[in-house]
Every structure is written in C-alpha cells, then in structure tokens.
Amino acid sequence: MMLLLAFSLFGQLGTGVQPIPYSKFMQYLDQGKVARVTITGDTIHGDLKEKPSDGPQSFVTQRVPGELASTLEKRGVEFSASPGAGPLGTLLSWILPPLLFVGVWMLASRYMLGGRGGLGGGLLSVGRSKAKLVAETDVKVSFDDVAGVDEAKVELHEIVDFLKRPEEFGRLGAKIPRGILLIGPPGTGKTLLARAVAGEAGVPFFSTTGAEFVEMFVGVGASRVRDLFEQARKAAPCIIFIDELDALGRARGINPIGGQDEKEQTLNQLLAEMDGFDRSVAIVILAATNRPEILDPALLRAGRFDRQVLVDRPERAGRLAILKVHVKKLKLAADVDLEGVAALTPGFTGADLANLANEAAVRATRRKAEAIAMEDFTESVERIVAGLEKRSRVLIPRERRIVAYHEMGHALVAMAVPGADPVQKISIIPRGIAALGYTMQHPAEDRYLMGRTELEARMAVLMGGRAAETLISEDPGHVDVSTGAADDLAKATDIARGMVLRFGMDAGLGPVAWDTEQGQFLNQPGNFWAQRRFSEQTAHDVDEAVRALLRRALSRAIAILRANRAELDKGAEDLLAHETLTAETMPKPIPESALPPPV
After folding, report:
1. What does the alpha-carbon distance between residue 551 and residue 395 come to, in Å, rounded to a whole number?
2. Inter-CA distances, 184 with 207, 290, 312, Å
3. Burial of 130 (0-12, 13-18, 19+ CB in 10 A)
4. Side-chain half-sphere of 451: how many Cα atoms within 13 Å?
5. For the chain, which end, N or C, has fewer CB atoms within 10 Å of the first or last residue's CB respectively?
6. What is the β-pairing status of strands 283-289 and 238-243?
C-alpha cells in the first residue's frame, strides 16, 4: 500500500503537478490566484492563474474539514491532509495478511514433507531411503570396462543371466543366491563390478552406503531400510547395492561402550527384509566391504549374503589388463612397455593403476611432450610409492654423506644376499614427508608365499642402512649412527615378530601360533581389546627370539658391507655426485655366497 502511494506521488511529480498543503491552497483562494479546481472526493486538483517562481502551475491537495480548517487558519497554523487508502487499499489491507500467512504455511508444509522446496529432504521425509536410483538406460558400465578380476566376473555372470532370464533358472528348481557380498581391499573395483552387473543386465540400480541408513533419530534407519525394499519391489527386476556394508552390519553386542541400539535396530530390519521378500521377485542385493571379519554372522548365513566373491589385488597379468583399459584414451609413445609398467607395480589396486595412468599423462603434459613416454610412467610410480620430490629440502654436507652411505648400504646388501628383490634405483633426493632418500626394489614376480630364508634376507636388507652407518662411524672423525634407520627398524621388527608369533619359525618357541588375533584378513589392524594368550615367561622368550633375529640380520649386513667396503665408498661418492643411480650404474658387490663364513 505504501508502494502504491509512492508510485502515485512520483507519477504526479513526473506530470508537473505540485502537492501543496491545504492551508496554502486557502491562501491562494484568498489572494485570487486559483484559476480552476477539480474535486474528487477529498482530493482537489487545480491550476493557478500564473506560474509561480518556485514550482509548476498545477497543484494537488487534500481537503481538511471546514470547521477545523477555519480554526487552524485563525490560529496561523499551516495544515494539510493525506489521501486515505481508498477502496483498493482497504481491500488489500484485508487480503494481504491472510495470503501472507497461507504462503508461509505452504512453504513450511513443503519443507516438512520433503518437497522440492524443502531443505535437506524435509523433516517428515527423514525415514525415506536415500538410495540413488539409476535407470537401466543410464548405466553405461559393462564387464568390458572391468579388468583384472576375471574370477569375480565369472561369478557375477550368473546374476546377470538370472536377471535377464529368471524363468530359465526356475526350470529345474534352482534358486539364485539372494545376496552377494563383494569383499576385498579398498580400490580393487567392487563398486565398479556392481555397476557392471547392472549395466549388463539392463535393470534399475539402487545405490546406497551403509552409513546413509543411520541417523541420530531412533527408528530412522529401520524406516529407510523398509522404504528401500519397497521401492525395489516396485522396480523389480532390479539390483540393490550397499557399499561399505560394515558401517551398517557390524556384529551386534561387541561394542564395550554400548549405545548401539539404533544401529542394531537397522541391522535387524535389514535381516528381516532379506528374509521377507519373495524369491520369485527378481531382486538381487549386492554389498561391498573391506572388513568382512567384523560383520554380524547373521548377515553371512545361508539365505542372506550366502555367496562371497573375493575382489583381490590383481596379479601381474591382471595389472596389465587394467592398464590397457586406462590407457585407451591416452596418447602413448612408442617406447611405452605396459608389461614393464605392470612389473613395476606389485600390490597396486585398480584405483592405484588408474591414478598411475593419470599421473603419467599429467607429467607428460607438464613437460609439453607430444605423447606419454615410459619415463613418465616410471617417475609416476616413484611419486606414488615414495612421494613427491622435495628438492627445496637442502641437507648439509654431513647429512647428505650419511644418507648416501645409508641408501648404498641397502642396495649392496640387497644385491649380495640370495632371495632379495632386485634393486632398480637409488636416490638421495628427499621425497614425501620424511624420506631423505630411498632404494627402490621390485620383485621379479608376484609372490604369495615367503620362506624363512627370504624373510631373513629382507630383514638383512632393511638393516643395510644401519650397517653402513655403523661402518663409517668406525672411521677417523666418525659420527654416531643416526635416526635415519627408524622406519627400517620398525619394518624389520614387524617381520621378526611375525616369524616368531604367527609363523612358528623359532626353534625354541616351537611351531606355535602365539598371535591368534582376528581382524588381519585384509591388512586391517588387530583388535585393540584382544587379551594376550601366553604367559610372562613366553613373552620374555618372544622378545629374546625377536632380538636375536634382528641382531643376526644386522651382523649379516655389516659382514657383507665390510667385505665390500670399496664398493660402498665408491657407490656413496657416485650418489653424492649424481644424486640418483640406476641398476646399470651401481657398483656390483661380492655375493654373500662367495664370502668366507663368519668366525
């Protein structure tokens, strides 16, 4: 209403009409200056006989009641009136407040019900499933996009056949597994496999995670599980994929702190839904986890997730197949040997190899190359394994000398002892957070079993850096051994404790697995609450056995380097001069087998 009044006043000003007080209008009348007037209600429009010097000739004013005007005029008071709201203004004053109230109520209702205008889905929609539905035509992934996990693909082909031809499986009375659990380390392609199943079968795909079922409100998780299965029944045949199942399916009753009622209710509802839906309905539940050992046993029994498919780190041939998938859209130089790259990357997962291909492309782009060369792949492997080069981290000469001897000690021991992995490169360029240098070794082939000889050789190689520092500390003007072997000692200690506690490789303690902690399936940390299962005397014997293994490894490394002292000095000087040495430019030590036996 105020806006309408303002617009009317601006309109009057824009047409050359001057609003004046009613008292001034009375003065104009007494002075005979008014030529004509038009009265509309209480509004008076008029024109003066002559144009005044301080404004336009036309004017407008609001009439004041006669008696009041006479009294005010007698008192010498200047007075004026303002226009009322009028019929339109009165009507708006009655209609606008209810309309405003109704609008606020509708917005609040939409928010509560989770409509498009609601923020966060709405309070009343908190029990709805957050699973993302991908239509069958939108899933562009197929089994051709998945490499390195051939056994898992064969297992999942049955699921695709069932979803395409469910009547074929029912012909002989066979029943398809209700749930399939994909287990494996992070980055091995579990989620990609699930999407490939949906893409091959051409069915809708519901994707969610275990964490999306649990909220702060009690009962929300169970409600979301019910809603998810209700949507799946309407869209059948379809696939439900639950990623990170361990966030939802952790074993009940193992938390020493408590307060897990909401999670347990959600898990109970999931178990009930998996038991409750009709097997004739073509719904397949896929789930993925990298911690299967902590799942509730009720999830893994027959009739629920009764088929487990391992999606492990790929072997050499699998890594080659994965690399071929990821380099399809890359421009490679003629010298790129993908088999050589696969050999350089033992232990890499599919995600690691995808990152490697991208890093190589970025490096080639950065140096403005026409194509990605083999050196881009090798440098990218070093960056992923050892970290980014830190050339700005300048070491003082004494520290550079210690690092050079330390890394050359690792390399010479690795080349001298039988069973050690071949050395590919040595560098004293700092990398990553704390590495002041590194010795890169790559196994000639993938290994799944290691003998005592190989484990002892690995410990000797790890002790090579400390052994080199021990030798140069005996020289005139020597320096003490440094802290640079901290990580080597930790790794060697882990190997020694594994030999004694898990693998039964100590003659004194016998073939006993003293460390029986659960939770080591996928390189996960053991249970913090696990209780030690042996006596104090056995613990003392374990410590002595571990100490003896580490002392023997250090003595072995010192003996090798003492016999190859000339090669150690020459190699260290070459490292100080060139910063990096490859297998072709390293000095060749005398093999340990050719050395005289220790006295």
Report:
1. 30
2. 19, 5, 5
3. middle
4. 4
5. C
6. parallel
Dihedral sign for Cα 188, 190, 191, 192, please: positive
Q: What SS3 class is residue 78? A: coil
Rounded to whole angstroms, the Cα distance separating 298 from 179 reads 13
In this prediction the pTM is 0.69
Q: Residue 176's closest CA among 158, 194, 193, 164?
A: 158
Pinpoint the residues of the chain covered by CATH 3.40.50.300: 132-310
Q: Indicate the DSSP class of residue 41.
A: T
Peptide bond into 430 cis (omega under 30): no
Concatenating the DSSP letter of every residue in 91-149 gives HHHHHHHHHHHHHHHHHHHHHHHT-TT-STT-STTTTS--PEEE-TTT----GGG--S-
How many CA atoms lie less than 13 Å away from 438 in the CB half-sphere?
19
pLDDT at position 531 is 60
Whole-Å CA distances, 131 to 39, 139, 268: 70, 15, 19
CB 308 within 8 A of CB 292: yes
Residue 347 CA to residue 457 CA, distance in Å, equals 20
Class of 132-310 in CATH: alpha beta
Report CA-CA distances (Å) from 308 to 14, 156, 280.
Answer: 82, 11, 22
Beta strand 423-427 with 307-310: parallel, antiparallel or unpaired? unpaired
| Topology of domain 316-385, CATH | Helicase, Ruva Protein; domain 3 (1.10.8)
- List the one residue out of 294, 307, 326 whose CA is nearest residue 517: 294
Tell me: domain 2-75, CATH 3.30.720.210, correct? yes
Mind listing the pLDDT tens digit for each residue in 107-161?
Answer: 766 655 554 444 444 444 555 655 666 665 667 788 888 888 888 888 888 888 8
Residue with tokens 């509730």: 296
**Yes or no: domain 397-594 corresponds to CATH 3.10.20.30:** no
Please, where in the chain does CATH 1.20.58.760 lie? 397-594
Q: Is 446 helix (H, G, I), strand (E, B) or coil?
A: coil
**Separation of alpha carbons 172 and 568, rounded Å:** 72
- Residue ranges, comma separated, of all CATH 3.30.720.210 domains in the chain are 2-75
Annotate 257-273 with DSSP letters as a single string.
Answer: S---HHHHHHHHHHHHH
Q: What whole-number distance in Å separates Cα of residue 466 and Cα of residue 485?
A: 6
Angle at 450 (CA atoms; ends 445, 453), nearest 5 degrees: 110
- Which tokens go with 517? 């902690």
The two structure tokens encoding residue 477 = 């003007």
Q: Which position has the token pair 């997962």?
A: 349
Bridge partners of 207, per DSSP, are: 132, 241
Q: How far apart are CA 254 and CA 433, in angstroms?
A: 37
- What is the chain's alpha carbon radius of gyration, rounded to the nearest angstrom? 41
For 485, the 3-state DSSP assignment is helix
- The answer to whether 214 and 262 have CB atoms below 8 angstroms apart is yes
- Beta strand 58-62 pairing with 17-19: parallel
Q: Which are the catalytic amino acids? A: 407
pLDDT single digits (tens) 52-65: 777 777 878 877 77
Q: Is 207 helix (H, G, I), strand (E, B) or coil?
A: strand
**Cα 189 from Cα 74, distance rounded (Å):** 97
Per DSSP, 500 falls in state I
**Which segments in the chain show pLDDT lower than 50?**
1-14, 115-124, 258-259, 518-529
